[in-house]
Amino acid sequence: MGLLLKAGINIDLIRSSLIAFCSIGSLFFLINIFPITRKILPNYSLQLGGLIGNTSFLGIPIAIALLPTSTINFTIGFDIGTTLFAWIFGPIFLQKEKSQSSKLNLKKLVLSLFNSPASKGTLGALFVYSISLDNYLGEILWIPARIVIFLAIIVVGTRLGIITKNKNNLFNLSSKIKNSIILKLLIFPLLIFMTTFIFKFEKTEVLSLVLQAGTPSAISTILMAEAYKINQDIAAKTLFITTLCSIITVPLITILIQIYN
Fold first, then answer.
1. Which of 106, 124, 218, 225 is deepest in the core (most CB within 10 A)?
2. Coil, helix or strand for 217?
3. What is the longest distance spanned by two Cα atoms in the chain?
4. Cα–Cα distance between 90 and 85 in angstroms, integer?
5. Are 203 and 65 in contact (CB under 8 A)?
């Protein structure tokens, strides 16, 4: 919420949130409606790993380090859209897959919407705006927000350490896991780049959104997999390998976009 108050809620934040949410939602729909894509990514854990990025713990720190502060709204907006989709639909999809049910529970959907971290932060920010304390609280919360961002990087490293200690054969990847990794690090960032090209975003705006799209799989994907006791090994491998590969892909994306523009 501190970052949101500092950046301010404006049209840039709303646009990037919608781009993230709608892009992820559209790809989920397309993957599951066509038999050929469903065969390539046959379960929701693979799909979540391939589309839900670590925008909070890695994407925002990277953007703050590499990009001007004027693009923070785009970065936070993309994170909000991604986090909303992940925590609204992720638990529902995994529970549905575990129970082999074809029904969508609307009550659980509404509860997931309001329990999402992004929803809580956004509602909190809107409340602060409504009582005209956004500037005051924004300055106060900006310092702890930056501390949390730096601590987030430590959390990522700690989580990866736990994965490497507890999981065997992390580099023994099936073709389906490889497909999820390719989707996360190459196809999804390319889709976002094409979207920004269509809507004529500026160079730094394009870079902020594509970098967010190119972040490795989110820690939330393995937390949800462990919570519902389904496909934990898939989630762990996808998270670990995408994070490892992003050491190369994130700088490469940055260089390619700068060259293109």
1. 218
2. strand
3. 54
4. 7
5. no
pTM of the model: 0.82
What are the boundaries of each domain within the chain? 2-260
Question: Of the candidates 46, 53, 66, which has an alpha carbon nearest to the alpha carbon of residue 20?
Answer: 53
DSSP for 159-212, please give it: HHHHHHHH-S-TT---HHHHHHHHIIIIIHHHHHHHHHHHTT--HHHHHHHHHH
Per-residue pLDDT, averaged over 3-29, amounts to 84
User: pLDDT tens digit string along 226-252?
Assistant: 878 888 888 888 998 999 999 999 999
Q: Which two tokens stand for residue 60?
A: 């925002």
CATH topology of domain 2-260: Na+/H+ antiporter like fold (1.20.1530)
> What tokens were used for 167?
């999981």
* Beta bridge mates, 217: 53
Residues 257 and 207 sit within 8 Å (Cβ to Cβ): yes
**What is the chain's mean pLDDT, rounded?**
81
